[in-house]
Design brief:
Elements: E1 14-18, H1 23-28, H2 39-45, E2 66-70, H3 84-101, E3 105-109, H4 111-118, E4 126-127, E5 139-143, H5 154-172
Parallel strand pairs: 1-2, 1-3, 3-5
Antiparallel strand pairs: 4-5
Protein name: Mismatch-specific DNA-glycosylase
Organism: Paenibacillus rhizophilus
InterPro entries: MUG/TDG, Uracil-DNA_glycosylase-like, Uracil-DNA_glycosylase-like_sf
């Protein structure tokens, strides 16, 4: 199964970073393609997108200033199937991608994604204060995972993503 292609470019407002693609995303070649994943609904409900996008439209979000990548490119059934070696290599590759493209915000879709990347033991929801970012000038934001397995109420998840939306609107104005 092939990795899901990154959607990255220069001048992006946000790059969304996941653990790795699901098997379903690997099959269809698009980010957050599992129908039980709430990612696209969260973006719409939080105001980050003007409408509900389909996974097949993931490349279209570059026009909105949003990109996509993962800490590990290999699709798996779950994050527990990712090896230590894959994480080590993925951290280096992700740091290089962020340094090259320099988005305004690196949004980690899940605390586990952020702690794997940063090697920190804890993270709070939202912007990470008190810690140096991995790439100078790229703000780090931790948002809840969009997996359908997450037990946090959808309104709370959407509220955290809404803070991300407010941050980019404040930055533009």
């Amino acid at each position: 199964m092939n990795p899901v292609e990154d959607h990255l470019d220069f001048g992006l407002q946000i790059v969304f970073i996941g653990f790795n693609p699901s098997l379903q995303s690997g099959e269809v070649g698009h980010h957050y393609a599992n129908p039980r994943n709430n990612f696209w609904r969260i973006l719409c409900r939080s105001g980050l997108t003007p409408r509900l996008y389909e996974p097949s439209e993931d490349g279209e979000l570059l026009k909105l200033g949003y990109g996509f990548t993962n800490i590990v490119a290999r699709p798996t059934r779950g994050a527990e199937d990712i090896t230590r070696e894959e994480y080590k290599e993925g951290r280096e590759l992700l740091r290089a991608k962020l340094a090259k493209y320099r988005p305004q915000i690196a949004c980690f879709v899940g605390k586990g994604v952020y702690t794997e990347f940063s090697r920190r033991t804890k993270a709070e929801w939202g912007f990470q204060s008190g810690a140096e970012p991995a790439v100078d000038g790229v703000r780090e934001f931790v948002a809840p995972s969009s997996s359908g397995l997450v037990r946090m109420p959808m309104n709370e998840i959407v509220g955290i993503y809404r803070k991300l939306n407010e941050a980019i609107r404040d930055h533009i104005s």
